[in-house]
Amino acid sequence: MELLALRTFEAVVDEGGILAASRKLNTVQSNVTNRIRRLEEELGTKLFFRSGRGVELAPAGRVLLDYARRMLSLERQTVAAVRQAGEDAGELRIGAMETFTALYLPAVLRDLRHAHNTLELHIRTDTSAVLIDKVLSRKLDCAFIAGPLRHPALQFDELTREELVQVFAPDTDPARCPLILFREGCAYRARALALQRTLGHMHNEAMEFGTLEGILGCVSVGLGWTLMPRRIVQQSSHAERLALREVPTDIGMVPTGMVYRKADMPPRLRDTLAQAVARIAGGTALPDRPAHG
């Protein structure tokens, strides 16, 4: 079974069809079709069903997908390990939620590049829920998310804690204003809704935005209130037009850290990332802990 065939199979699944997969792989459709056909012949079973203009995984294809992702992940680890015998090289796919990206990611990537200067980096920002799914499916090697997280297949290392505060315009009453949220999947969303219930707010309407500055900009002109890390608000261009209020600790203190598959994450890279976050977080970082494999 060739790795190229498995890589092609994974691309067809991820992209939802032969044409899209051929574009991703920078090849012609016939090459993708032939590789899938040969893979099906080798395994003696159908991997896909036709579904309109796309394809749908057959039962055998669903079984193969998990093994294919594992094998391709092992290939990347093997290449990285062999290259690192002489130099720091290879590929690392990192995910981060937007608040982590704003507070930490540029400096973390700088430190990572300094320590492993030939490493090929791929970065994705999204909600914590989406990033966890990407790590589970091995589309990301690690991700920085808001916890806590307990999952049998994943390791979550808490690196720091963020204090969430209620944010609103000084001349407004949050109890009478709608809640302004990130989209579904944001770890802060559930906490904001819990706070809304706890405080007995009369206004149950909610608005969704996709960016930090979009949310804070709307809050600053009195369109609603939100729940946001204190440091994000303090760094915002809207800071002078915002009021902050502490919230109960069980809602306001959020463990933030790195999630990964323990067997997939090279220890040296994991430690470099963790140490960078601890350095940048400063006083908010957790005490050093013994390294674990």
Architecture overview:
The chain is an alpha/beta fold and 293 residues long. The protein folds into 3 domains: 3-78, Arc Repressor Mutant, subunit A (Orthogonal Bundle); 88-160 and 256-282, D-Maltodextrin-Binding Protein, domain 2 (3-Layer(aba) Sandwich), CATH 3.40.190; 162-253, D-Maltodextrin-Binding Protein, domain 2. It is built from 12 helices and 11 strands. The strands form 3 sheets. Strands 3, 4, 5, 6, 9, 10 and 11 form a 7-stranded mixed beta sheet that branches. The chain has a two-stranded antiparallel sheet with strand order 1-2. A two-stranded parallel sheet has the order 7-8. Helix 1 (3-15) crosses helix 3, helix 1 crosses helix 4 and helix 2 (18-25) packs across helix 3 (29-43). The longest helix has 26 residues, at 59-84. The chain starts with a helix and ends in a 12-residue tail after the last helix. Mean pLDDT is 86; it is low at 283-293.
The biggest beta sheet is recorded as: 7 strands, mixed
By CATH, the topology of the largest domain is D-Maltodextrin-Binding Protein, domain 2
SSE order in H/E notation? HHHEEHEHHEHEEEHEHEHEHEH
- Assign an overall shape: globular
Low-confidence stretches: 283-293
Number of strands: 11
Summarize model confidence as the mean pLDDT. 86
Topology:
Elements: H1 3-15, H2 18-25, H3 29-43, E1 48-51, E2 54-57, H4 59-84, E3 89-96, H5 98-103, H6 105-115, E4 118-125, H7 128-136, E5 142-146, E6 155-168, E7 179-181, H8 187-199, E8 206-208, H9 212-220, E9 226-229, H10 230-235, E10 243-246, H11 249-252, E11 253-260, H12 267-281
Parallel strand pairs: 3-4, 3-5, 7-8
Antiparallel strand pairs: 1-2, 5-11, 6-9, 6-10, 6-11
Helix pairs in contact: 1-2, 1-3, 1-4, 2-3, 6-12
